[in-house]
Every structure is written in C-alpha cells, then in structure tokens.
Amino acid sequence: MIIKSKGFYEEFERKAGRKRTTHYCAGCGHGIIQKLIAEAMADLGIQDDTVFVSPVGCAAFCYYYLDCGNVAGPHGRAAAVASGLVRAIPDKIVIAYQGDGDLGAIGFNNAFQAANRGDGFAHFFVNNALYAMTGGQLAPTSLPGQKTTTSPYGRDVVKTGEPLKVCEIFNQLDRPVYIERVSVADTKRIMKARKAIRKALQIQKEGKGYAFVEILSPCPTNMRADSVKAAQFVTDEMEKTFPLGCLRDRSDEEAPCCMDIAPRSVDDIVSADYEGDEITDMPDIKERKYKFSGFGGQGILSLGLVLADAASELGRHVSWFPSYGPEQRGGSASCSVVVSGLEIGSPAIDHPDVLVAMNQPSLERFLPTMQSGSVLIYESSVPLEIQVPEGVTVYPFPAADIASDNGVAKAANTALLGCMVELGLLDMPDEDVAAALARSFAAKPKLVDSNKKVFEAARAYARERLV
Amino acid sequence: MRKFIKGNDAVTIGAIYAGCDAYFGYPITPASEIAHTAALYFPPLGKEFLQAECETAAINMMYGAASAGKLSMTASSGPGVSLMQEGMSYLAGAQLPAVVVDVMRTGPGLGNIGPEQGDYNQAVKGGGHGNYRTIVLAPNSVQEMCDLTIKCFELSMRYRNPALLLADAVLGQMMESLTIPKDMLPREDFSSWCVRGDAETRKNLVCSIYLEPDLQEDHNWLLQEKYERMQCETMSESYLCEDADLILTGYGSCSRICRSAVDALRSEGYKVGLFRPVTLYPFPQNELNESVGSKDVLVVELSNGQYRDDVRLHLKACDPRIELANRMGGNLISVEEVKTKAREILEDGQ
Description:
Distance between the termini of chain B: 49 Å
Shape of chain B: globular
Number of helices of chain B: 13
Radius of gyration of chain B: 20 Å
CATH architecture of the largest domain in chain A: 3-Layer(aba) Sandwich
Structural class of chain B: alpha/beta
CATH class of the largest domain in chain B: Alpha Beta
Radius of gyration of chain A: 35 Å
Distance between the termini of chain A: 100 Å
CATH architecture of the largest domain in chain B: 3-Layer(aba) Sandwich
Shape of chain A: elongated
Oligomer: heterodimer
Structural class of chain A: alpha/beta
Strand order of the largest sheet of chain B: 3-2-4-5-7-6-13
Number of helices of chain A: 16
Strand content of chain A: 15-25%
Strand content of chain B: 15-25%
Helix content of chain B: 40-55%
CATH superfamily of the largest domain in chain A: Thiamin diphosphate (ThDP)-binding fold, Pyr/PP domains
Largest interface: A-B, 74 and 80 residues
CATH topology of the largest domain in chain A: Rossmann fold
CATH superfamily of the largest domain in chain B: Thiamin diphosphate (ThDP)-binding fold, Pyr/PP domains
CATH topology of the largest domain in chain B: Rossmann fold
Largest sheet of chain A: 7 strands, mixed
C-alpha cells in the first residue's frame, strides 16, 4: 500500500482492482514522475485550473491518479490535443505527457510544431529507450546496438538511425521558454527532476509559454532486468547519449504579446456587408444560361460576376459556377451563369443560351454544345474554323481592339459586356448593368471611368455594326 | 439581408452564427476558401484560427478544444478527411461535439480537384475504426452551405457527436445569394462532461478507453442507443413525386441536376419526381419510401453506386427497379445524360 500523495486522488476509483496502488511495474519511472507532477500541482495550488492530457501506452491511465481535469487522446497526439486545449482555455494550465514512441515517432511533428509555435503548455517527455506497453519494441530513442523485440540483433544505426535527441532538436527553435533533460534513476536525480517539473508548471502558472522536460526513466520489465539494473542502464548507458542538464531557461523574460487585432462584432463583419433584399420568385423572368470562356487572365470570371451581381441586385435567382484551381493559371478559364425568375436547378450548363468565347479552345469546347436559338459572341481576332450548329446566331466582336483603342488593353471583358447589353442579351435595365460594372471596380476606383469608356465604345460598335 | 457569395464562404458565415469558437485546418483545394474566411473573420470576433501542420493535428486540436467544451470546426477534402478518420472515431468514442466539412474532390488517391461524391461511404458509414456513426448533412445550395453548417453544430451539440457537412466542389466553388441567419445558435451547457480547468469540471474525464470488456461494451451500447435516438432528425425534400412514374434521387449538387432534369422531362410530358436526402446519416428511410413506394428509381450520383447501395438498403418495396446514372473523375453528370437515362427507363416500362 502506498501513502496518498499530494495531488493524487484519495482512491483510484477509475482503476480496476486495488484502489490504492498504481498499475505500474516495480521499478518503473512513471509512478515517480506522476507523483512529482501531482505534488507540484498541489503545492502550486493549480489543480482546479489544470487539464492533463494523457498519452497512449503505459501512461494512458494517468487519469486514474492525477486529481485535476483529465483528457485522453489518440496515440502520438497529446501535443496536438494540448495545442487545441490551450486555445480553448488560454488562461488555464495544460499539461501534456508523452512517451518516446508517442512523441518521438508517430507524434513527433505535432510536438515539434507545438514547440515551434511556443504553445503555452508543460510538455513532459518520458524517455525509456523503448516502447513499453506494446511489448518492448525499438523506439526512436533506443541506443545503438540495443536489443528490443523489433531489433533482436541490436539497433543497427545504419538502417534505423541514431537515437533521437529531442531536447537538442527543440533547442534549435526560438519559442520554447524552458528545455531541460532530467532522470528519475536515483534519489539525487529525482530531486533534480522534481525541480524541473515544478519549474515547467510555474512557467504555466505565470503564462510564460512552452516548457519541455525530458525525463529518462527505467523500464525493468521490457529491459528484462531488475529495478537496480534498469536504473543503472539509465545512468550508465542512456545518459551518454542523452546528457542531463538544462538546455534553456528563459523563464525570467517577459512573455511576448501576440499581434493585436482590433475586435469587431458579428454585425460589423457579416451583416454590414449584406444589403440585398430577399429574393422573390418572378415567373415572368425567363431562365437564361450564359457561358463565358477564354484564357486565364482575360477577365472571364469577372465578366460573369458582373452579370451575376447585376441580376442578384435585381432580386433574381442567380448561380455563378467557375472553373477553378490550376486550370485558371495560364490555361483556360470559364464560368457558367444562370439567371432565372425561379429557383435554379443545375448551376452547370450543358447548352448555353449565350456563349461568350474569347479564344480558340473555348470555341472548340463549347460551340458544339450550342442549340438552335442560342447566341455566340466571339472575339473576332480568333478565326472561326468550327462548324456552327444550325440556328445559332453568331456575332464576331473585336473586343480586344475596342479595349486597346480606348486605352485599357485589359478591358476586353468590359467591351463584351457592352456588346451583350446592346444586343439585348441580358434582359435587365442598362443602368443596372452599368452600376454592377462600377461596383466591380470598387477596389480600384481609378479604373471606373476608363472601363466606362470602353463599355460605351463597345455599345456604340455593336449598335452600328451588329444590331 | 443577403449577399451574393461563394459556397465555401457561406460555411464560415454559418460557423459564426453557430457560435463556433475555433477553426483548425490545413489547406486543400477545393475547400481552402473556408479557411481563408475563417482566418479573416475569426480573430476579430475573439475566436481562434490556427493553420495546423497537418489534418491529423487539426482533428486532434479539435478534440482538445471540444474536451474543454468549445465548438470547433475544420474543412478539407478527400485526402485530408481521410487523414482525420482516426480522430473522427476518437471524437465519436469520447462523445465530443465537432464539425468537419468535406468539400469532395475526386479520388481515389490524389485524384483531381474536380467535383465527385466518392467520399459517401467514408462519411456515412464511418471511415474510422469501431462501432460509431457520424451525423452527415448534404447541402445543395450556397444557402444550405450556411444553414446546414449551423444544423451540424446544433446536432453535434445535442448528441455530443461529430457532424460532417458533406459538400462537393460545385457547392464550394459556386456563388449564389445567401440570406444571413437572423439569430445565433443557442449554446448547450457542457459542464457535466467537459474539462475546462475549473473546480466544477475538475472531476470530469474525457476519454474513449474502457479496459474492462463489459464496460467497453456498455459504452458501445450507449452509443448505439444514441444513434437510435438520432433517427428522428432526418431531413429530406420531395419534388413532384405524387403522380410520378419514375423517381430520380440524388444528394448535393446531383439533386440540383436532377431538379433541372425533372422540370425538363415534365415539360416533355414525362411524369418524374425527385427525392433528395438532406441528412445522409440518419438516412431518411421513411421519407424515401413515402416518395418512392414501389415506383422505379433512377439514382444520380458522382460516384460508383455508393449512394445507390444505400437507396437499395433502405427501400422496402419488393425487388424495386433501381437504375444508376453516374459520372466520376471530376466530370459532372449532365442534365441531358440524366434525361436520356430516365426516358430509357420510362419507355422500357411501357
């Protein structure tokens, strides 16, 4: 029977079997380490404020013993769980506890990234140079030549690498406040471990940031040794590879402040932006399907958006569906716009009522899909070499030239919009289209007037040559 | 009040009105805009945003935040959601609320970024280990990208279970009008189980492990009872099914394509209707049977019959005729293809 330790539960109700003894093997370091943590929590008066994240493995059951809030997560993810916790309860104290397989192998990146971010939790890393619970397998921390159940001939460093020195790696990072390696192999060392554990928790109490303590710990069961020999392995062998000592202590420094972002309300962020009225069904408005297509960078997606915005402002049902991803970088871009007085079914278009094509691939791809009664407008500098389906009205339009002639070479899309207005393809008042065009340059007010000029010139051309 | 907005952005708006406290995520096309707007809007609202080092980290950060009684979300697409499956299982096992958004792209493997619905089985049947279920909602418009995100949080809180919004690339990338929600979603009290670093919750434990087989079995039964209770939450839509000879059925963007096909076929004189599940788990079995009865069914999906298999599973009619019209690889099925298949079935039946 053990005497109740400070910070431990009175009785271990969550544990099956005996309620006053831990489940750890004789000579195991875990019980000592958890006692030190519990005692430090009690002495610092932080049990109410603390959430402890248990790992997977022998220490999966820390929550049997530690009298504080307890969370148990997946193998390797205690650091990630802690990273989530510190953001959920930033003023509270979070402890993550992991073994060497858990932290050094499967969950290394989560631990490393948490350390790099300087996430504010105490991170205890128990290194016993093997996987214990799963049956004494090779760990990233196993020593060269060490025999384990998965290195029966001894660890071959040529094939499996050298022991992972986590403290030394983390010490390359800027944000950790405190990094120390200790041991619980004998009384003298336990007293130093006690000090380090208390320091890591004190740093949390003061809200200073990330603290990492690696603890070398004996595992007699998997070393097939008695307690004394297992402890000797730690002091005589492990410490050669994993020297004890403090690698960093910046606990006297002020904790840095994060970037100040001015607070805003939901109304301010979301609602203020929403000005349109409710959409009401308008059965008189016939559904029209527009396809815009060209090279990425020709403003095809924006052209569709101006039309969609204008129709949306008028309270019509509108959908805008773009091609996206790598396709739009340098390759072809297209978007489908459906405007309707009633609820829209598919936002994708099989047969456009209006096709605006700015390059050859667009003609090749979409012209064959057009049906009788539909309208094609294409950039007239592109040769029309494809059979036009029967009943399609075709308008060649020099959008690029009109844009250049009016001083905005990039505004061919604006010219096409003017052409569509003049040809009566948009089924809405001209001024609403012009207003949507102006809105599309809200971020670049300098371009409003020049685009207006292009827009008007295009309308004039269409009026004189096409109508 | 409304605005013309992208589907992915509407998810973030929904999350804000649901009272989501934190976003943890890793970028992936075609879901990234959700992270972009969360990064923009969450910090000034006092919410947390963190771009995690990987999807595994993101889902476990959600596990941590949920343990503390906070609402969190992530958004990803196939490859990323696959990486989160272990975490989904843990969230379900530990009974934690959290919302995952899957804006489906194509697969298997890297696939491409076009729309597909190949994640149906993973989402609906549970892609992780163990006897668990995920609440799965399938929006079909920008409005529903917002509204069903809120519903995901509501159900996730009510049942202390992860909820998944199963969208696809069409819904994520398209723009439509969004009418913004009027009210914030009320928050449930998590004090009885969460661990938030105070005296009241100090006694609590969040975990999914029970070493004793009997206790683990009890826990499993408790979860199964919960999944039974969820069955009252089904949602669906039925369109012109009453007098129909053939019922089209599809979810998400396919339901929109089906609707166009129904309207077009009706104008040609064919009597067709549409059944659209909104909840995929719990599956609206009664509603499906009410709409379909013993009529023929044409399932439309962007996958290899994964949804068709569920329709077959849930239909009570004896030996119903269930046909499949589907595309994969990033190709949308066209209204024309659906119409052609429907006509074939209708004419075959005469």
